[in-house]
Amino acid sequence: MRQFIKRTLFVLIVILLFCAVLAGSHLLIDEKGYVLVSFGQYTIESTLVSLLFIAVITVFVMWLTTKLAKTVWRVIRGVTARRTKKRQQREEDAFTQSVWALINNQPDSLGYTLQLSEFPEKWRDQQLAIQAKAALHIGQKVVAREYLQQLSESAQSKVSELWLAAEQDTQALTSLAPQAQMKKASPTELNAYVSALLQAKDWDTLQSTIEQRHKQLQWSGTQWSQFFAAYFEAILRHSDKDIHALYGAFPRALRGQSHEAYVHACVRFGHIEVVRKELLKMLKKSQYQELATILQYAGGGDIELRKAIQAQLKKQPDQTELLFCLASLANGEGDHGLAAKIFDSLSSAPWQALWQHQAEIAFAKTGQFEKAYLLVSNVQN
Q1: Domain extents in the chain
Q2: Taking each helix axis from N to C terminus, what angle separates 356-365 and 320-333, rounded to the nearest 10 degrees?
Q3: CA-based torsion, 289, 291, 292, 296: positive or negative
Q4: Residue 332 contacts by C-beta under 8 Å, 6 or more apart in sequence?
Q5: More confident residue, 84 or 209
Q6: I need a labelling partner for 114 at 20 to 30 A (CA). Which of 104, 169, 259, 314 fits?
Q7: Are 203 and 239 a contacting pair, CB within 8 Å?
Q8: pLDDT category of residue 381 using cuts at 50, 70 and 90
Q9: Could you tell me the pTM of the whole model?
Q10: 346, 316 in Cβ contact below 8 A?
Q11: Domain 272-380: which CATH class?
């Protein structure tokens, strides 16, 4: 635009100079000089001096018009730039506030912030994901799904936890499977895929994935313990699969990682006979605290283990962990009266948190609701 104006002015100046030369030459010979312009049905007749004057006025008007146009354009551009800058600042502020709210686990603040402003366009997927998270926080799963469905295809594979929380297991697996099944899948992608398989209860795929790709997960011992605890419990609650056969089919490395969770799951769901040898070894080695920790959620009893514990109690009648183990097994066998008596005797000893669950069962089953209530109240306080 500027170059066009410059060229136009240059041409007009040249024409003006040409007219000035012509006019000057005629003035020198004392002649006015006439100009006759004819086009179509129109004819313009003028002297060179008049034409020169008209050309000067024309150039001046064009220059003035150009100046005004530039001034108006500068004002408009300035207003637009200020509005754009304010909008961008609001978007950046909304993004920053949402990130801090997400870091501090404040979904309520997320929802409020996103109502005030949009994110920058390049963060559109992140905004939708955060809005879905905020919706899930207040239990609006349908709304969360709508936000998740608006995500770009590449972003949908990065929010598997949100898909799972929105009860869209199939969608989570569909978006995760292509990346997770690649040989060079990252630990993060595999972790998300395993979590999705567990929630979707796809036991066969989960089993094969764990067996074949467990080295790629790069989990710590704590992570493996948490996974296997959830894995065995889910299988026992939601399937008819034999966890003993599954455990036996694991590679040696996985059996080591899953052993503790396997023992806890067997005891909790009343399969004590399967791990009885393990528990008897603990008893013989005087690992009473470890044994008590395993039996705190016992869902059944075992006569042989109970007799072995009673035999040890004859030698150490005041050993509190052994007394608790006996009470847990008594509860599992339905002998809640014996369990309640044991917990009454333990009330004079420093109370341990792991006794809580079994004590509540014993007192509730024997009609001693006040004692059970006091136990619950003490825990809450």
Answers
A1: 189-214+222-269, 272-380
A2: 50
A3: positive
A4: 270, 272, 298, 299, 300, 301, 302
A5: 209
A6: 169
A7: yes
A8: very low
A9: 0.61
A10: no
A11: mainly alpha
Please give the Cα distance from 258 to 42 (Å, whole number): 103
- One-letter-per-residue 3-state SS of the chain: CHHHHHHHHHHHHHHHHHHHHHHHHHHHCCCCCEEEEEECCEEEEEEHHHHHHHHHHHHHHHHHHHHHHHHHHHHHHHHHHHHHHHHHHHHHHHHHHHHHHHHCCCHHHHHHHHHHCCCCHHHHHHHHHHHHHHHHHCCCHHHHHHHHHCCCHHHHCCCHHHHHHCCCHHHHHHHHHHHHCCCCCCHHHHHHHHHHHHHHCCHHHHHHHHHHHHHHHCCCHHHHHHHHHHHHHHHHHHCCCCHHHHHHHCCHHHHHHHHHHHHHHHHHCCCHHHHHHHHHHHHHCCCHHHHHHHHCCCCCCCHHHHHHHHHHHHHCCCCHHHHHHHHHHHHHHCCHHHHHHHHHHHCCCCCCHHHHHHHHHHHHHCCCHHHHHHHHHHHHC
Q: Two tokens at 320?
A: 């509190």
**Percent of the chain beyond pLDDT 70?**
71
Is the predicted pLDDT of residue 53 greater than 70, yes or no? no
**Tens-place pLDDT, residues 162-182:** 777 777 777 777 777 777 777
Sole residue written with tokens 């754009």 = 84
CA distance 121 to 187: 30
- Residue 47, pLDDT > 90, answer no
Helix 124-137, helix 141-149: angle, nearest 10:
170
For residue 312, what pLDDT is reported? 93
Mean pLDDT for 241-267 is: 90
Percent of the chain with pLDDT over 90: 21
pLDDT recorded at residue 314: 92
CB 166 within 8 A of CB 144: yes
| pLDDT category of residue 36 using cuts at 50, 70 and 90 | low
15, 9 in Cβ contact below 8 A?
no
pLDDT tens per residue, range 219-247: 888 889 999 999 999 999 888 888 888 88
When computed from its CA atoms, the radius of gyration of the chain, rounded to whole angstroms, is 42
